[in-house]
Amino acid sequence: MIDLATPLLAIDVGRGTQDILVYEPGRPIENSIKLVLPSPTVVVAGKIRQATGAGLPVFLDGSLMGGGANTGSIRKHLARGLPVYATPGAAGTLHDDPERVRAMGIDIRETPPEGAVVVRTTDYMRPEIESTLSFFGVRYPENVAVAVQDHGYSPHRSNRIHRFELMQEQLEAGDWDILSLVADPPLADMTRMQAALQQAPEAFVTDTGPVALIGALCDARVRQQAEKGVILVNAGNGHTLCFALKGREIYGLFEHHTGALDAERLQRYIRKLAAGTLTSEEIFDDGGHGAAVRKPLATDAVVITGPNRLRLMPEAYQAAPFGDMMLSGCFGLAHLWKVFREG
Length: 343
Prior knowledge:
Blueprint: E1 8-13, E2 17-23, E3 33-38, H1 40-54, E4 58-62, H2 69-79, E5 84-86, H3 88-91, H4 98-103, E6 106-108, E7 117-121, H5 126-134, E8 144-148, H6 159-173, H7 191-199, E9 204-207, H8 208-216, H9 220-228, E10 230-235, E11 239-246, E12 249-257, H10 263-275, H11 280-285, E13 290-293, E14 302-305, H12 309-312, E15 317-318, H13 328-342
Parallel strand pairs: 1-8, 4-5, 4-7, 5-6, 8-9, 10-14, 14-15
Antiparallel strand pairs: 1-2, 2-3, 10-11, 11-12, 12-13
């Protein structure tokens, strides 16, 4: 399913890890170079904690990136009475509305004050990855694919609602084909993807949720089940995305926060998704993003991938494309590179 003509670096940026695949033509994909490293937000959070411990101001300098651990460490830094400064680009990491960022106590400015610890904000850690590969004599590939989760630009309304509305618009425009959730280049409204694209202008940049499920289809058993109909679940560290899929047609989907789910709740949502009765309001009111259902899907086949798979669905089939579940997103990126870039 993956047979590219050129080398590719695939980077799947999650909430806890960034998963990296160096694909080289002619090399068995099982023997490819693979890395599972702390995600950029975890790296940034660590640097902020060091500054907090030293009692020093922090200056966030870089581009908009994903939140999570970094925003938590910023709030703790501020709670200690220590200053935080940020460039306009970096400030977008905290909120799309600059006034909301200032209300947190953050000074938005272009240059750092004297004595501040400068922390670079980015989802695309090329210098660090390139340096790591160089220690092993591996050249940084010219072709790059990056996946991040983007809520879209939404300064004055719920970004959960906005993200899911964008997903539903893409589905309807693409007749609910699974590839309709992937755009090359990304939508202009996807500011996190656009930030990554600015740093890697020739890269293929898309969303983490769909690519992990597309990658799971590289598992031969999952691919066979999908022909008859299957429930596909990606239980990531931050978010869980679930598709009811037959062939390439999505019958319905929902997205929730992984930390808010347990096995019983997830299974209830899956049953309602398959029955065609799940509502977006039900997921949103439970703290998730939403649901979109086109029609019911009669299937008992359920497969799951992602680092939280065993906690949430230990009895389901554990999808492991090419024997490596943590790289599902990277395999999805490689497949999409072939579809969109190599044809």
